[in-house]
Amino acid sequence: MLDRAKTWAFPPDCLRCGDRVEIPYGLCGPCWAEAQFIGKSCCHACGDELIGEEAAPSDLCDACLMRPPPWDAGRAVLRYEGTGRALVLALKHGDRADICRAASSWMAEKAQEWLGQNPLLVPIPLHPLRLLQRRFNQSALLAHHICRTPQFREHAITCLPDALYRLRRTASQDGLGAEARFANLDEALALTPRHCERLRGRAIILIDDVMTSGATLWSATHALRLGGAGPIYVLVMARATKAA
Known about the structure:
It contains 11 helices and 6 strands. The chain is α/β, with parallel strands linked by helices. The strands form 2 sheets. Strands 1-6-5-2 form a 4-stranded parallel β-sheet, sandwiched between helices. It has a two-stranded antiparallel ribbon with strand order 3-4. It is globular.
């Protein structure tokens, strides 16, 4: 009753454009239509959509066949275009923490097949100086919201936000090609020493807002592997297409 009264008094807005919508933390019709949600036919490793017939569980895209990622499986909710790109940028640079409410629900649905392994959620960390500038880590915020979804609460899955840390401050990845991105992130992340025992042999779900080349997630996976963690899964809000 109280929720209905609040909705009547303060009608919810579309997460992207601000138009009125019926459901809180939702998208209006045009923004939903423009959102390119990735279906079940996707690359097993990076989560990018596979065009054509329905993919088998182990199918890989061309990029992952040529350069297989070091993690065990990956999933993405949206393509990093249109509504997907707008939501990621609003979350990252527009202080739109409310986007995590919807995004976490979408992401939790993608991760259901991993929940039986009692995984630990590990967000990609920011360098302390970048965290000071941005004021929050969007990946950690997503991870905390995912832990609050019904599926994750049912399995009592928790988040370890400081499992990884940045060894050095890296240059922005914006505008860099794939090889430059990998060079920029080479050995940039490490396991926090006090968490080594807790992570050893533990299933991990790495959380990030967007995967472009995958360089950041590669670095994070290598750091976790060195510490004995595994299996390692990757879950992102958006996946940049090869042409993006």
